[in-house]
Amino acid sequence: METLAPLLYLVSSVLFILALRGLSHPETSRQGLNFGILGMCIAILTTLITPAIPSYGLIIGGIVIGGTIGTITALRIKMTALPQLVAAFHSLVGLAAVCVAIAAFHNPEAYGIGTLGHIHISSLIEMCLGVAIGAITFSGSIVAWGKLQGIISGKPLSFSGQHLFNICFALALILMTALVCLTGSTSVFWGIILVSLVLGVTLIIPIGGADMPVIVSMLNSYSGWAAAGIGFTLQNPLLIITGALVGASGAILSYIMCKGMNRSFLSVLLGGFGADHTPTAAGGYGDKAAKIGSADDAAFIMKNAARVIIVPGYGMAVAQAQHVVREMADILKAHGVDVRYAIHPVAGRMPGHMNVLLAEANVPYDEVFELDDINRDFAQADVAYVIGANDITNPAAKNDSSSPIYGMPVLDVERAKTVLFVKRSMGSGYAGIDNPLFFGDNTLMLLGDAKKMTEEIVKAIES
Amino acid sequence: MQDQPTTLTNEALNLSITAEQLSDQAHKLALDISSYNFATSGHESFVMMGFTIFVLACFVGYYVVWRVTPALHSPLMAITNAISSVIIVGALIASGPDNMSFSKIMGFIAVVLASINIFGGFIVTRRMLSMFKKKG
């Protein structure tokens, strides 16, 4: 048993690595998922058969309760609400880490890290670190969840001296950790939890809605570091390995999202983006006026096109237009038109969100292309059909150095022969920035609800 | 003449008692030393080993995650969410003892939270992955 348990933990670590490896292609992804589930089962069963656990009643009860809640939530959740679900799940990992650390602090004998009040210093440091990251993940994720759900305003809420405030809190955490190590005081330990909870809120609340993909990824990373911290405390390599894998994964996703918006990670953390822009009045960009088209015009142009690229944004998902867009694509394909989809890294509200939404609408994944793979092809395309997207197509990011999104990689839709831009009104985008594309010579604005407009186009093509 | 053997046996008895006490002390000392080793240097060496494992796992994670196709970044987040709930291992140990205690309750809460994540995370990943289909 003494050597068997570490061996089995190693097996499940390897299975977790294989699970992530499987996601390198949709074909192998389902097998990867099975590896992950198997790894988790091995980890849980191995722990249950160790002699440290004589009573099973409460454990089985807990797994049944949690499993039921988790299963029902996961089966019911709509794919548009995925970012909220993931944020909520992150908060649970954070809270679980806090609970485990508290349990270890009050009953260190069970984990073999000392006796009550006499826990080894290195264990105490790790415990404080784990509990702090866990608590920040918990409260931060709750705020992120509230912002995504629309309960808390997506506008950045900043207050004067907030950075100073956060720095003071961080310093207080370090001091309190030192105090816990020196005195083993329970009340200071609880103080760390409290301060970390407040810090989680003040860190995330100033961050604007447009930066949420970065924040969700960052919290994903934090939940991993929290698990690794607990792994150090419990001297369990499986937790350390898994925590490091998850932490690295979240960090990479945050990096990709930052690059997709041309924002530095620090500036996202400092917050306040998307607040101070008063969009200029509709219809007036210099002396140019936007050309407004109808569904019939759009149908005519697309029917006679050879190559159409559809550029979806989060607005398409909000309008629930993805199914009718796919229907339109099917009809166009039947007319011999080549249809493809172009996806910007930050098109949805979390990494890869738009791919999932299109997949849900039965769009084959080999028709969907990432920015780098398709951007050159806009020059050969007859039509770019922009639906529910705005900022990710804004040419100002390339040629207007005064634009707040200057330098952000954008889809070169204006290179297509015609740009069909579906939009509810002439207002600005999610980040509150004007888009000169509306007034381009080859742009036809289709004003209306994304779903209704596409339905009308479908009807017009068929007739 | 008769006293001599008695004093001799008495002395032998005393000697044996002292020897026993001495061996007891030695045993206790040995135990102390061994537990001291476990308590301090044993743990210190785990910190170093744990750190080694941690850094290497970060590198493995880095290279594996960069190979994940961007189309599957959402399932990646959901599955990492589920596997980070392997923290349930610590929760199980806390909620294992026979006697009810504060840390057992904390362990129970952590088991519930982690289970929500494990089941929820894996199921939502499965839902997403089953949607990704090829052309035709």
**How are the strands ordered across the major sheet of chain A?**
5-4-3-6-7-8
Strand segment count of chain A: 8
Low-confidence region ranges of chain A? 274-286
Structural class from helices and strands of chain A?
A: alpha/beta
Q: Proportion of β residues of chain B?
A: under 5%
- Which value, in Å, is the CA radius of gyration of chain A? 26 Å
Q: What overall geometry of chain A do the principal axes of the alpha carbons give?
A: elongated
Summarize the entry for a quick read:
The complex is a heterodimer of chains A (463) and B (136). Chain A has 17 helices and eight strands.
What features would you describe in this structure?
The complex is a heterodimer of chains A (463) and B (136). Chain A has 17 helices and 8 strands. By secondary structure, chain A is an alpha/beta fold. In chain A, helix 1 (4-22) packs antiparallel against helix 2, helix 4 packs parallel to helix 8 (212-233) and helix 6 (162-183) packs antiparallel against helix 7. In chain B, helix 2 packs antiparallel against helix 4 (102-131) and helix 3 runs antiparallel to helix 4. The chains are: A alpha/beta (463), B mainly alpha (136). Chains A and B meet through helix 1, helix 2, helix 3, helix 4 and helix 5 of A and helix 1, helix 2, helix 3 and helix 4 of B.
